[in-house]
C-alpha cells in the first residue's frame, strides 16, 4: 500500500472528536479540492506487517484498550479493502475510515465518515461531514447517516473563515438536524 504517514494523535473532527487515534494516511486522491490541507502525493510502499509494526510502536504499551485506527488520505478507498480491515481487527483495533464517498468503502468498518465533495455513491454511513462554504450546497450532499455535521471551510483567510463560520452556525440554527464540527486539532495545534 502507498502510505503517506502514520501518526498518533487525537481525532479532531466529527463524532469521535477528542478520541486517541492512530491515523494511517494513504497517498493519492481521485479529487483535487482547492481547500484540501493534506499533502498526500509522497508515500512509502508498505505491506500489512510493516503498517502494523508502526501502529503498534505508536500505540500505548501496555494497554488494555487500544486506540482507534483512522484510515484517511488522500482517499483510502483507492487502496483499502475488507481484507486489510480484517487484518486490523485481528490485531484488536476498532477501525474508522474518512472517505470522500465517491467509491464504495469496505463493509466491515466499525465507523465510516463520508465528507462528500460531489454526489456520493454511499447510501448509508455513520456520519456525514460536509465542508461548509455556503448554505446553497448543503442539501446536495445529504445521505442517510446516524450523525450530520457541518464543518466551516478553512480558507486560510481569518476574515473569510469568520464569515463562513457565522453562516454555518446560522444554517445549523435553522436546520437542527446538523451539528457543528470544528477542526479542534487545528485549534489546539496538534497534527
From TrEMBL:
<feature type="binding site">
    <location>
        <begin position="35"/>
        <end position="37"/>
    </location>
    <ligand>
        <name>S-adenosyl-L-methionine</name>
    </ligand>
</feature>
<feature type="binding site">
    <location>
        <position position="25"/>
    </location>
    <ligand>
        <name>substrate</name>
    </ligand>
</feature>
<feature type="binding site">
    <location>
        <begin position="10"/>
        <end position="12"/>
    </location>
    <ligand>
        <name>substrate</name>
    </ligand>
</feature>
<dbReference type="GO" id="GO:0000287">
    <property type="term" value="F:magnesium ion binding"/>
</dbReference>
<feature type="domain" description="Radical SAM core">
    <location>
        <begin position="16"/>
        <end position="191"/>
    </location>
</feature>
<dbReference type="GO" id="GO:0051539">
    <property type="term" value="F:4 iron, 4 sulfur cluster binding"/>
</dbReference>
<feature type="binding site">
    <location>
        <position position="38"/>
    </location>
    <ligand>
        <name>Mg(2+)</name>
    </ligand>
</feature>
<keyword id="KW-0408">Iron</keyword>
<feature type="binding site">
    <location>
        <position position="29"/>
    </location>
    <ligand>
        <name>[4Fe-4S] cluster</name>
    </ligand>
</feature>
<feature type="binding site">
    <location>
        <begin position="115"/>
        <end position="117"/>
    </location>
    <ligand>
        <name>S-adenosyl-L-methionine</name>
    </ligand>
</feature>
<comment type="pathway">
    <text>Purine metabolism; 7-cyano-7-deazaguanine biosynthesis.</text>
</comment>
<dbReference type="InterPro" id="IPR013785">
    <property type="entry name" value="Aldolase_TIM"/>
</dbReference>
<dbReference type="GO" id="GO:1904047">
    <property type="term" value="F:S-adenosyl-L-methionine binding"/>
</dbReference>
<dbReference type="GO" id="GO:0016840">
    <property type="term" value="F:carbon-nitrogen lyase activity"/>
</dbReference>
<keyword id="KW-0411">Iron-sulfur</keyword>
<comment type="subunit">
    <text>Homodimer.</text>
</comment>
<feature type="binding site">
    <location>
        <position position="33"/>
    </location>
    <ligand>
        <name>[4Fe-4S] cluster</name>
    </ligand>
</feature>
<keyword id="KW-0456">Lyase</keyword>
<dbReference type="InterPro" id="IPR058240">
    <property type="entry name" value="rSAM_sf"/>
</dbReference>
<feature type="binding site">
    <location>
        <begin position="151"/>
        <end position="154"/>
    </location>
    <ligand>
        <name>S-adenosyl-L-methionine</name>
    </ligand>
</feature>
<keyword id="KW-0004">4Fe-4S</keyword>
<comment type="similarity">
    <text>Belongs to the radical SAM superfamily. 7-carboxy-7-deazaguanine synthase family.</text>
</comment>
<dbReference type="InterPro" id="IPR007197">
    <property type="entry name" value="rSAM"/>
</dbReference>
<feature type="binding site">
    <location>
        <position position="36"/>
    </location>
    <ligand>
        <name>[4Fe-4S] cluster</name>
    </ligand>
</feature>
<keyword id="KW-0479">Metal-binding</keyword>
<feature type="binding site">
    <location>
        <position position="74"/>
    </location>
    <ligand>
        <name>S-adenosyl-L-methionine</name>
    </ligand>
</feature>
<comment type="function">
    <text>Catalyzes the complex heterocyclic radical-mediated conversion of 6-carboxy-5,6,7,8-tetrahydropterin (CPH4) to 7-carboxy-7-deazaguanine (CDG), a step common to the biosynthetic pathways of all 7-deazapurine-containing compounds.</text>
</comment>
<keyword id="KW-0949">S-adenosyl-L-methionine</keyword>
<protein>
    <recommendedName>
        <fullName>7-carboxy-7-deazaguanine synthase</fullName>
        <ecNumber>4.3.99.3</ecNumber>
    </recommendedName>
</protein>
<feature type="binding site">
    <location>
        <position position="72"/>
    </location>
    <ligand>
        <name>substrate</name>
    </ligand>
</feature>
<dbReference type="Pfam" id="PF04055">
    <property type="entry name" value="Radical_SAM"/>
</dbReference>
<dbReference type="GO" id="GO:0008616">
    <property type="term" value="P:tRNA queuosine(34) biosynthetic process"/>
</dbReference>
<keyword id="KW-0460">Magnesium</keyword>
<dbReference type="InterPro" id="IPR024924">
    <property type="entry name" value="7-CO-7-deazaguanine_synth-like"/>
</dbReference>
<keyword id="KW-0671">Queuosine biosynthesis</keyword>
Amino acid at each position: 500500500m502507498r502510505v503517506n504517514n502514520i501518526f498518533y494523535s487525537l481525532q479532531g473532527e466529527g463524532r469521535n472528536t477528542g478520541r486517541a487515534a492512530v491515523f494511517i494516511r494513504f497517498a493519492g486522491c481521485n479529487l483535487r479540492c482547492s481547500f484540501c490541507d493534506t499533502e498526500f502525493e509522497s508515500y512509502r510502499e508498505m505491506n500489512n506487517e510493516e503498517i502494523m509494526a508502526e501502529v503498534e510502536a505508536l500505540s500505548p504499551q501496555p494497554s488494555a484498550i487500544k486506540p482507534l485506527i483512522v484510515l484517511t488520505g488522500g482517499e483510502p478507498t483507492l487502496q483499502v479493502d475488507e481484507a486489510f480491515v480484517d487484518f486490523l481487527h485481528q490485531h484488536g483495533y476498532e477501525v474508522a475510515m474518512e472517505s470522500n464517498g465517491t467509491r464504495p468503502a469496505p463493509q466491515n468498518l466499525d465507523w465510516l465518515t463520508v465528507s462528500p465533495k460531489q454526489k456520493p455513491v454511499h447510501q448509508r454511513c455513520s456520519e456525514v461531514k460536509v465542508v461548509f462554504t455556503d448554505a446553497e450546497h448543503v442539501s446536495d450532499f445529504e445521505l442517510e447517516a446516524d450523525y450530520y455535521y457541518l464543518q466551516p471551510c478553512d480558507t486560510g483567510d481569518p476574515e473569510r473563515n469568520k464569515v463562513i463560520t457565522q453562516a454555518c452556525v446560522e444554517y445549523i440554527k435553522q436546520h437542527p438536524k446538523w451539528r457543528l464540527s470544528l477542526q479542534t486539532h487545528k485549534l489546539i495545534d496538534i497534527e
